[in-house]
Design goal:
Elements lengths: L7 E3 L15 H24 L4 H8 L11 H17 L3 H4 L1 H20 L4 H29 L3 H20 L1 H8 L12 H23 L5 H16 L3 E3 H4 L4 H18 L1 H32 L3 H7 L1 H23 L20 H18 L7 H29 L3 H18 L4 H24 L1 H15 L2 H6 L3 H9 L14
Parallel strand pairs: 1-2
Length: 510
């Protein structure tokens, strides 16, 4: 019924409907997956490439970078934008479609690269990078949705999601290398031809050149948006009252925005799993950004490395993420094997099975921090702390994949909100934790600074261990998890498994 009238419901023409994204060819699915993951890399690069221009920017804008890293405010603003923008704009793509979201965010991202490139004062850089970081994060967050739109089932999604996890880390980690390579251009450090501006010029050029390529390759992946377009076309051609289901039940934009803010915020304040997982991934993400400055500090003081050499060292994080990507199929295999042991939903893998490799990965993260801190000294070969950085990269990737996949499985209907809460936390840590880098390593020394960070990482490694052994009980006591499953039998089981009155559907969930 629509407006009190009976209408025809338009849906897929059977299970094999060629317009259904799940039925697209295997070849095109991979072309689309690789393309959107490439977008994830491109939009992540400016996050770290900016710092390669610190020295000339400090002189040009009269901004002191020691003892407090004032130039980092432009990276802080990037991460604050990355934390806030997805809460507002990513949920809207559920109705408007993925493609408008990609291209709107990508064009805004490109425009604010222009703003940064031609900035004539530091305040302009801070502001333009806030909007650039926000648009970048929107693009990256849509990628996971696109992959879910076209790959059906956990097994089919495992490799595409693993690739997405790699590009999420690598896109940011590659930034310092790209930036340091660009500033090697022999240009005067004044005017619009200064090398630090070329960090933006070159990214503007290749990003703009790729827009028509992306337009040619990408298609809308959101199923209900495709059905809505088909229904509109049929109404126009036949004059009959034909509607897609998404047209019958509409949520106003104001309500969508309200939910996109309130639900993640409530989960971040009331859900222990979301709280501790957010702390876990946030600290790892903060270390990723802290390395942008600490690697320059430790390797320049201990080994006399220049900007380009320290940029090369930071490629070790990307190498670590690549190693984690190669290991991840083992994690997926272990996860799928838990289906035979699931008594809640027989035949479906257990959410805690997502954490098997992230636990040793979290310990590797800690080991890498200790190794990096204590080996960053002139008498130890530079390859040793570099290996420590690589090990930290493996840990960051493992933690990221564990958090994303577990929250998606455990919260199902509210997965987007749980992931938004975690994204808000990790980008906030990425914004502010690196401010402590210079004084931390200078005051405590490289070894003890690395140890302090390592001990914090070790404490947070308890989070996945507790969930591995107590996950079922925790999920049973969570109001959101009890109401989040698509399986009615399991929802009833979860609600009845705790000594409290059963919750009516949606009663205590924003």
């Amino acid at each position: 019924m629509k407006d009190g009238k009976e209408v025809e419901l338009h849906t897929w023409n059977g299970q094999d409907d060629p317009d259904n994204p799940f039925n697209w060819s295997f070849k095109y699915k991979w072309i689309l997956t690789i393309t959107v993951c490439f977008i994830s890399i491109l939009t992540g690069l400016p996050a770290g490439s900016y710092g390669a221009g610190n020295d000339p920017m400090s002189t040009l804008f009269s901004v002191k970078n020691e003892p407090f890293p004032n130039l980092y405010w432009a990276t802080c603003s990037w991460n604050v934008g990355a934390a806030l923008f997805p809460l507002v704009f990513v949920p809207l793509t559920e109705n408007t479609g993925r493609m408008p979201g990609y291209f709107a965010a990508y064009i805004i991202f490109e425009l604010f690269l222009f703003g940064s490139a031609f900035a004539d004062n530091f305040a302009t850089l801070v502001v333009t990078r806030f909007f650039g970081g926000g648009a970048s994060s929107v693009s990256i967050n849509i990628v996971g949705g696109s992959i879910s739109d076209v790959w059906r089932g956990d097994k089919a999604r495992s490799l595409p999601m693993s690739l997405f996890g790699f590009t999420s880390v690598a896109g940011i980690a590659l930034g310092p290398f790209i930036g340091s390579a660009i500033v090697q251009i022999r240009r005067p450090n004044i005017g619009l031809d200064a090398p630090w501006r070329w960090i933006y010029y070159i990214q503007i050029i290749y990003n703009a050149a790729l827009i028509p390529v992306f337009w040619f390759i990408l298609q809308e992946t959101r199923g209900d948006v495709i059905l809505r377009k088909r229904a509109r076309k049929l109404r126009k051609e036949t004059g009959r009252e034909i509607y897609a289901e998404s047209e019958l039940v509409k949520t106003s934009i104001a309500m969508q925005l309200k939910l996109s803010f309130m639900r993640p915020t409530k989960m971040l304040l009331t859900e222990p799993v979301v709280i501790f997982f957010t702390l876990w991934i946030s600290f790892a993400w903060g270390i990723l950004f802290l390395f942008f400055s600490s690697v320059v500090q430790t390797f320049s003081q201990s080994y006399g490395f220049g900007i380009f050499q320290t940029g090369l060292i930071q490629l070790a994080i990307t190498a670590g993420a690549a190693i984690g990507t190669f290991i991840n199929p083992l994690q997926d295999w272990l996860y799928l094997r838990t289906a035979s042991k699931n008594t809640e939903r027989p035949g479906k893998p257990i959410p805690e099975g997502r954490l098997y490799t992230s636990i040793p990965g979290s310990f590797l993260f800690t080991v890498g921090l200790f190794m990096y801190g204590w080996s960053s000294r002139p008498e130890v070969h530079w390859i040793v702390p570099t290996i420590g950085v690589c090990i930290v990269g493996i840990g960051i990737y493992s933690i990221y994949m564990g958090v994303v996949n577990y929250l998606t499985d455990a919260y199902e209907k509210y997965a987007a909100s749980a992931l938004s809460a975690a994204s808000l936390g990790r980008n906030t840590f990425g914004a502010f934790l690196p401010f402590a880098s210079f004084q931390l390593f200078k005051t405590l020394g490289f070894g003890w600074a690395g140890s302090l960070l390592g001990f914090i990482g070790l404490i947070l490694s308890i989070v996945p261990i507790v969930l591995l052994f107590k996950g079922r009980e925790i999920r049973a006591k969570s109001p959101f998890m009890a109401d989040s499953t698509f399986d009615e039998e399991e929802a009833t089981y979860r609600r009845n498994s705790v000594t409290r009155p059963p919750m009516s559907r949606g009663a205590s969930v924003v």
